Structures are given as C-alpha cells and as structure tokens.
User: What shape does this take?
Amino acid sequence: MVLDKATFGADESVLEFMVLEKGELPPEFSGYQVVREGDLDNEAMAEQGFEGNTAQRFRDAGRVTGFMREFGQTASMVAQDGFNFLSATVVHLFDNPNSVSGWMHDVFLKDFEDHVGESVGEDHQLISAHRLEPTGFFDEAVALRVLQGGPSGLISSTVVDFRVGRILGVAFVGTVGDHQRLELAAELGLALERRIVRIVLGGG
Assistant: This one.
C-alpha cells in the first residue's frame, strides 16, 4: 500500500506537525487554548500510564516515540455536567503497521479493560471502559468510553485510536459527568487523519 510505505519515510521530527492546531478543531472547541504539548517518549508514557508499565514494555511493543497537544477550557468557561473540558490529539510512531494494530488491541483496549475497578492517578477510580465503533476512517480504528470517579465527581473520556501505516493517531475528548462523545472524538480523529496523510504524502 502506497500510504503504508510512505509512513516509513516519516521520522520523529515531523510528529509535532501532525497534531491538530487550534484552527483545525471542531467549532465546539473554538474558544479553547493549548494547555499542554510536547514530546511523548516511552519513559513519559510509562509514567503517565497504569501502574507497572515500563518504557521497555512499550519499546518491545514497537513504539518509537510520540507527540501530543491538548486544548483546555479558559477561566471564563463553567465546567458543569456535560461540559467538554479537554480535547487532545496525539501521534505515535511505531516500527511497522502491525505494531500499531497490536498496540491498539493489546495495550490500549486491554489495559483499560483489565484495570476497571482500580485506582488511577490521585484519588480516582476507573469505573468502566466500554468499546465503541468509530466509522469513516481509512484503515483500522477502535474507540473506548472510559468513566472515572473522584472527589470532584465523574469524568468521562472518549478516545479514538486509528492507524495510518506505522503511525497511530489518537483523538481524545474529556467531559464532566457520565457522557459519551464518540461523534465529536471521531470528528477530531478524522481531521487528524487528514493532516497525517497530507504530511506523509509530502503536502505539508
């Protein structure tokens, strides 16, 4: 496949140009600002992930590195039930397309499902993780709706993972309360997919 082969010409130096910029976000997030962005190497992934994860595990899974950008609410926004407080896009570079598929099923989906009921982060519990069916993507795509509970109440995360050759694209929407945002997360993901393909094929 031409696109798969083209992704072997992409290295970690182009990852930061693949994540979405503010002007490419859905209208829902037009007033949001960048709250965090940067490289996401295997050490950082392990630190931010579930307890027991290691950089070596991720290297063994074929992951090279990644880059992420998050957009969050401004001080004037009121975070009430149903409010989408965060949107993010992430790109991960892998050794090959098969490693991307393996990660989607054996790390992303499996890790969340295996840790339901356990503590995550500070004073939070992973209450549930339900698979969703994203559509419209060029190649393989999977999704989860994750519900967490903590001192401030419930928080939902809707996450879409999709493959473009040896690149894994991730689109994330965080919502206050018990809600599912597959349509919005998929809209983010499809915009990210278009940007990745354009850069991989030399469109800039």
In short: The longest strand covers residues 153-164. Strands lie at 33-39, 63-72, 84-94, 119-120, 124-132, 141-150, 153-164, 167-176. DSSP finds five helices and eight strands in the chain.
